[in-house]
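Narrative of activities, Objective 1.

The group set out to show that a structural description can be obtained from nothing but a protein's sequence at a throughput compatible with the screening campaign. Below is one input-output pair from the validation batch, recorded exactly as produced.
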Amino acid sequence: MGLNEGRPRGAAARTRGSSAAAPTGDKPAIWLWSQYLLDAAAWIVAILLALILRYELLVKEVNVPGIAVFCAVAVVAQLAVGLSFALYRGRYSFGSFHEAKLLVIVAVLVAVILVLSSVAFFTVLEVPRSIGIIAFPFACMFLAATRYLKRMYVESKAKPGEDAQRTLIYGAGFLGNSLVSRMMQDPESPYFPVGLIDDDPAKKHLRLSSVPVLGRIDDLREVATRTQAQMLVIAFAEVEAAQVRRVSDLVAGLGIKVLVLPPLRDMLGAGGAAIADFREVAVEDLIGRHPVDIHPDEVAGYVAGKRVLVTGAGGSIGSELCRQLAGFAPAELIMLDRDETGLQSTQISITGRGLLTGRDTVLADIRDADALLDIFEDRRPQVVFHAAALKHVSLLEQYPEEAWKTNVQGSLNVLRASSAVGVTNFVNISTDKAADPTSVLGHSKRVAEKLTSWHAERTGQKYVSVRFGNVIGSRGSMLPLFTEQIRNGGPLTVTDPEVTRFFMTIPEACQLVVQAGAIGRAGEVLILDMGEPVRILDVAQRMIAMSGKDIDIVFTGLRPGEKMHEDLMGVGENDSRPLHPKISHTSVAPLDPQQLSLQAWKAEGGFGHGTRGITSGQSQAGTRPGATPSSDAPVPPVDSHAGGRAS
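Output recorded for this entry:
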């Protein structure tokens, strides 16, 4: 949604956004030449005023023919200097600071020409040499005045139409000012700004394009009622989810739509969003967080010019990871997955084509150790991001051996192939469920962290793991499920009224992964500061409110392996942040692959007999029968094929 609905994204800013008050390259010739005629008249009037002041109203002493020639010199000089500085070629916006600065320069040069002419031809013109100097300030004033009056006229004619919706702007800074100007200057704008909201006391009496600041955020509800606003635009490029929730709560029940701007990185990116491309608040804005700041130089140092391989490249995390890595100019980006459709989608998003004929896509299963080793020996990657995994808690509770084959044995296959070809940077994508795990997923990913740590010790290279919280919008995650349930008329299913989870956006998760490869030390586990956990019931209620439907919520109870509240750190893990304020460093005990045993792993996790039940008391405590608080203890060897290929 933008100022020009129905046009392509970004069209508002690029086609018409500033044409009303700031005509540029498409100004008609008559507009430009009429301005020159006004400027010429300004110099003539300025010279006449200068003469009156110079002769103290004794106009009989004025040499009329000489003054006429002197005025002609000023008119010609204004044209010549103005054209040489593109003043009459539509380069600058009327009434802008850029034009004002140029106007002074042009006026100074014309005044210099007049002074030199009066000195050189004084005996002929009989015009006092001081006339050019006296006329200069008058000329500047008249030149600026004509432009200001013209700008006021244009702005008065370019008001939003009668059908425009009454809109409040939260934020009276640069973006707020830009939005108000666009809205007020576009006669086709669907939004009419009726007031501004800002928490800065210094802006209490501020007006932007005649639109006043009406109060602070605490006054929002009263201001919205008084102005009969229908829309509220949050004019911050990077606004925290907590602030979006607060604004949404303040206007709840008033029938006001809350709009947000695109992220700053999108507005600054090539071909990205425009400032006018704001949209309605989505649930991601209410519970998400903004990507952490990464250090591009550090990332480029180990990615640029290197052969980079990403497993699980067709998934939500893997595909976004590939898109971000492509921006750091690797020598080769190798996207590996067993999902051919996912690989094609990722390739299209990066290259704009999905032919699947190049060497950038590799179809393989990480469970196949021999095939994986052949691929690594052929392509010789230097940096590996391991995103391939099974992740659905409930399904893996029923089929724990599948988690073992992919998350444990598959990860081991990738690690072995990486060490065999001398990979220098390896990033294993883990989950916060690996901290004091209680589920099959958590236990399997915990083992993968330990295997990564062991290979870091063995190779001496930077092999690290990164723990994620719940990723907003990924395939199979909570938000798509709630959206589908709402579309079908409900009910929404929530496990428990008090259950909470940590959330992050897909870009945030991938930025953490990329940064981890740069700052992680061998064998470490890196964990993002994910802020405060979000109650799932609150998310469900907000999504129902945003849908405008009357939908019930059904509580199903915690499923086997689920916790009431997730942990970020396991027992005995330290929260150390030596290199980045948002990234914690901890370590896990390494696990020799020779000690791997499927039977011992299942017995330790308490899921040796398939699907298990879990009582309410056990789920509240986040434990399972037979589970240990942590999986850091080595698993003793049991079967004869430990450490071999996954079946």
